[in-house]
Amino acid sequence: MKLAYSPTSPYVRKVMVLLHETGQLNDVALENRTTTPLAPDGNLLSSNPLGKVPALERDEGPALYDSRVICAYLNDRAKGKMYGSGARHWDILTLEATADGILDAALLMTYEGRMRPDDKQMQEWVDGQWDKVARACSAINTRWMSHLSGPLDMGQIAVACALAYVDFRHDARGWRKGNDALATWFETFDSRDSMAATRPPAG
User: Fold this and answer.
1) Which end of the chain is more exposed for a tag (fewer CB within 10 A), N or C?
2) 30 SS3 class
3) Are residues 90 and 59 part of one domain?
């Protein structure tokens, strides 16, 4: 298998952490792709017409894209338990969706600062995206700590990667304020070998 990859993409990081945790890292060749909404990598478009990473090329079928699809496939391939069953399955999917919502909003904030000329940037838009991040962190801190403290699953991986990205690009915003339980959980989870091995380079 081949994974279209960027070391700073938080969506790619979700996939990489899962590969580490399920022992599949050596089954995947990493292909570094530099792609943005304004300049998509032409080599990536054959795997993902949306021009986004991650995208996973397989021998047995068309390429998969979207981190949630890829993670579900890799979990199934490893006969893993990252998505649970019964009611827990839906809890995991909801928690993963919440974490991806944090990533979506935080990435839009990043793009606003990096892609738009200074005179076209809209602070109200950036603040609105941050409000989504803040509400999601508060909801996780209030409703999901018992789940996060349970057996390892994809919801936990997704939340950890989302919070790590917020630290990476928007640390000054201070998501930890008022979210003490979540901050304590993240400090512990972030020390896992899979998280340490997938830390993005500075810049």
Assistant:
1) C
2) strand
3) no
